[in-house]
C-alpha cells in the first residue's frame, strides 16, 4: 500500500517523514525517546514484516500547542539505536480543535 493511501486512511494522524536507517534486531524490545510527551506503548517487540510498508508501532501524544519535538529510539539498555531527530510541527492543524495530536512512528 502506498504512503498516500495510508495518509488518506489516517487523516486524523500526522505523517512525519524521516530517515529510517537503523539496525533493529527481530524479537527484541525497543522504546521511543520523546521527552516531555506521552508515548504509547512504552516498549514494543520489533517484528520483521515482509510488507512493503511497516505499520506504525508507537503513538506520540502531543498538546495542540506543541511546535516541535525530538524523536529517537532506544534499546532495552536505554542506548540510542535510531539517532534522535528534531521534528517541527508548525503549520499542522488538528482535525478536532480540542483533541490532542497523535504522531504515529
TrEMBL record:
Family matches, as InterPro entries: FIIND_dom
Every copy of the FIIND domain together lies at 1-101
- What keywords are annotated for this sequence in UniProt? Cytoplasm
Give the source's domain of life in one word.
Answer: Eukaryota
Cytoplasm among keywords: yes
Which is a Gene Ontology cellular component entry for this protein? cytosol
Annotated Pfam families: UPA-FIIND
Give the residues annotated as coiled coil.
none
The record's subcellular locations are: Cytoplasm, Cytosol
- KW Cytoplasm (keyword) present: yes
Q: What is this protein called?
A: NACHT, LRR and PYD domains-containing protein 1b allele 2
Organism name: Silurus asotus (Amur catfish)
